[in-house]
């Protein structure tokens, strides 16, 4: 037996003797646990706008709008809520909408906001240009 093999064998015996059994006095039960860290998720504090039915431009926008190329329909409801249907999924997203001049904001219940521009008889969003459903 070489000196290196003997040294490794002795080291293994010493390390084996350092283990703990489940009946130890530390109350650990011999269980191995891994440390965990947790980052708290901040609450969503986005205040959804409410729509004044009498606000300039709001009443004129109520109704259904579509972007046919994206299979998208936007329903702007009189009470200030909206519903989006997307690629065959009805009620894909809901939330509240507001108008400020030529800007329309859709604040979803998911906390995301889509902003668009009112341009004549269309609503221009990043997804595309919506026209009124006929």
TrEMBL record:
Residues 21-58 are annotated as: Disordered. This is Lipocalin-like domain-containing protein. It comes from Aeromicrobium chenweiae.
């Amino acid at each position: 037996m070489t000196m290196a093999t003997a040294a490794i064998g002795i080291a293994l015996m010493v390390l084996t003797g350092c283990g703990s059994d489940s009946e130890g006095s530390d109350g650990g039960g011999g269980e191995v646990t891994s440390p965990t860290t947790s980052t708290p998720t901040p609450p969503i504090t986005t205040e959804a706008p409410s729509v004044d039915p009498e606000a300039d431009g709001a009443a004129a926008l109520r109704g259904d709008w579509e972007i046919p190329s994206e299979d998208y329909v936007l329903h702007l409801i009189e009470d200030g809520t909206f519903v989006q249907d997307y690629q065959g999924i009805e009620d894909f997203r809901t939330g509240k909408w507001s108008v400020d001049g030529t800007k329309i904001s859709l604040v979803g219940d998911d906390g995301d906001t889509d902003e668009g521009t009112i341009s004549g008889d269309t609503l221009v969003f990043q997804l595309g240009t919506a026209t009124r459903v006929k």
